[in-house]
Amino acid sequence: MAETPPVDDWATDYDIFDAGYIKDPAPVWEELRGKCPIAHTERWGGSWMPTSYKDMQAFVRMVPELSSRNVLVVSPPREERVYNASLDEFGSLAPPITSDPPEHIPMRRLILPLFTPKAVEEYRPFTENLCHQLIDGFIDKGACDAAMDYAVHIPAKTIAHIIGVDGNRTDEFVSWVRGLVEDGLTDVATRDKYRGIIRQFFGELVDARKAKPRDDLISRLLAQEIDGQPIARKTVVGMCDLLLVAGIDTTWSSLSSALFHFSSHPDDRRRMVNEPDLFASAIEEIFRFYAPVTMAREVTEETQAGDVTFKPGDKVLLNFPAANRYPKVFEDADKVVLDRAKNRHIAFGIGSHRCAGSNLARMEMDVALRAWFERIPEFELTDPDAVTWAGGQVRGPRHLPFRFPV
Question: SS3 for 392?
């Protein structure tokens, strides 16, 4: 990523890729709440960024004024958008997340049955076995990178299992995802490269399943209909793209954030070991406090929001993480309260585009943390300064050097 000038005024010139902001954005959110309701920047193609819980509730319901057709927080430069559009032969990039009504509802209905609470419980034994296999690989060493040796593999291999693709290729899948939503966020050529790789991979699988169906997710999707018509190839490819990318990056970030928190807060770590009834509320609190995802909307018609006028073509960032730290909604908003009784967090979004995979994420977090605390109840960071974070679209630790007793 090219080096950019430092920020002088976060209200008029914020930078979501500023290193300090990625490491700890909370001070910026607090400053913005006191200075302006909605911040603005011309960096990275320009965007608006609200930080309040109330604004987030309002903006997700502004349809069609705020479109989901482009949910990336950084768009390609305007002069390159025609080129990028022509690259996409599949229409809506990743339905249903990039779909607007009326197309959104039938597409969302296709994937919701895959992620009901009952459906995701079927994947629990696979995930439990996976977690213990991963821990077996490093527990005798007394050290690991908790983000790269543990957290990333759990959502990657679980979503591969669900989709029905080769779980031995998950390192490759992770590199594609990082190329698309980390390095590719600010580099159009990199983004296009990895988008093309992912689309080609799923395009070939869809063609193979059309020719010879199997008992797997892709074959089941191809057997569905929308408005009496067979589901289009481009839709299945786009859905698989979404499941792979969102299925890996978001839960990896949440689980890494949880392990980061407990490694640096020994009192909370001990409570998790000694009070197993805390798991449900603690996981929701981790989702709230370390909410990983910021989504974007593209303005389609002039819209007024308080003193701000959004113009067609503008980008609005749905800053769910900032809303989850809003002090008027959450008592002690900037503290992790493991037994928080009232927790109306919106880490999974809100409204019609609320994350369809939230039940899967909760199951993966529950299984992964229970397995970790069962096997490794005492652990700490070897070097807090060595922790690295990804940011922008999805925020979470990418390197967590841990040590623990053998």
Answer: coil
